[in-house]
Amino acid sequence: MSIRDYISQVKTRLFIKSYCPWCHKAMHWLDENGIEYEILDVIANEKAFDEMVRLSGQELTPVIEADGKVLADFGPEQLAEFWKKNFSHR
Predict the structure, then answer these.
(1) What secondary structure does DSSP assign to 4-29, as a single string?
(2) Which of 35, 40, 42, 59 could covalently link to 30 via disulfide, CB atoms 3.0 to 4.6 Å apart?
(3) Spatial distance between the Cα atoms of 57 and 50, rounded to a whole number of angstroms
(4) Residue 85: which residues within 8 A CB-CB, separation 6 or more?
């Protein structure tokens, strides 16, 4: 299986607040890198907010969960490192 095939199989969820500029940068980075993801707006969805806090221990966005691994309150640089560290070796 190629890395691209593997990446397409990683279940990825992005917890956002619609007004958060870092959230939009994260979505742009994921789109540019061909990573499919589910968007969970924690302002519009209280259950998503509660889950985000449970996963990350905080209320700041963005928070990404990919195959059970969590990165919280990050910028695009940290997202690239997170992805490389957790998924480039497969």
Answers:
(1) HHHHHHS-EEEEE-TT-HHHHHHHHH
(2) 35
(3) 10
(4) none
Mean pLDDT by 10 residues, the chain (90 residues): 59 95 94 92 98 96 94 87 78
- Rounded distance, CA 28 to CA 35, Å? 10
Contact 78, 86 (CB under 8 A): no
| Residue 69: strand, helix, or coil | strand
Going along the chain from its start, the domains and CATH numbers come out as 3-87 (3.40.30.10)
Cis-peptide, bond into residue 62, ω within 30° of zero:
yes
pLDDT at res. 27: 95
Angle at 79 between CA 39 and CA 48, to 5 degrees: 30
DSSP lists the bridge partners of residue 39 as 14
